[in-house]
Amino acid sequence: MELVPGSNNPGSYESVNPMMSPSSNAIGSSIAPGGSSSATSSSSSPTAPSRYENQKRRDWNTFCQYLRNHRPPLSLGMCSGAHVLEFLRYLDQFGKTKVHNQSCPFFGLPNPPAPCPCPLRQAWGSLDALIGRLRAAFEEHGGKPEANPFGARAVRLYLREVRDFQAKARGVSYEKKRKRPKQKGPLPAPGAN
Question: What are phi and psi of 14, to 5 degrees?
Fold first, then answer.
């Protein structure tokens, strides 16, 4: 099996079994008796999983596939923050965000006037969201919060370095949105102006 970018979401990756037909992937594409897809019809839950839950499941399956393909193969219990960093670096080859090298004449320009040979990488926001989903999935699959490799200090530091470097290289600032201060006093009654 191999990992390939997901077709529905540019920042996602799905594991594909090369022995299966090109139109069917290994995640959520089994066909139930009667011709309906088991990913879309379920008798146990009346509502379909949210987009977030589907993405989290795909990300988890991709990470587990990465561990199985690792040399030597790793179990989830043996996984550490270092393995998570390997996984994030592996995903960079599927990135779609141009990140300029410091030697590039377009370093720091948000809209370069011409193409350059700088590499495509995963955008910091995509990696940050991915780690958030994987961190939640780890605990949903029985992992203890204190042993969560996705919450390791090394992973947090790596994400901060990626954010800061991409901000400089792309001329984009990543600033936290400030929360609005809470209103003091009573709110006006509905319909009253």
Answer: -125, 150
Which structural domain range is residue 81 located in? 51-170
Residuewise pLDDT in 10s, the chain (193 residues): 344 444 444 444 444 333 333 333 333 333 333 344 444 444 555 688 899 999 999 999 999 999 999 888 888 888 999 999 999 999 999 999 888 888 888 888 888 888 888 888 999 999 999 999 999 999 999 889 999 999 999 999 999 999 999 888 877 666 656 666 666 666 666 665 5
Question: pTM to 2 decimals?
Answer: 0.64
Domain of residue 84, CATH code: 1.10.150
Show Cβ contacts of residue 162 under 8 Å, excluding neighbours closer than 6 positions: 124, 127
What stretch of H or E contains 2?
strand 2-5
Say how many domains are in the chain. Answer: 1
Return the closest-CA partner of residue 63 out of 115, 27, 24: 27
Give the Cα separation of 99 and 121 in Å (integer). Answer: 6
Q: Is residue 165 part of a domain?
A: yes
DSSP H or E run through 88:
helix 81-91
User: Is 111 a member of any domain?
Assistant: yes
User: What is the Cα 40 distance to its own chain's centre?
Assistant: 22
What's the CA angle centered on 81, arms 157 and 142, to 5 degrees? 125
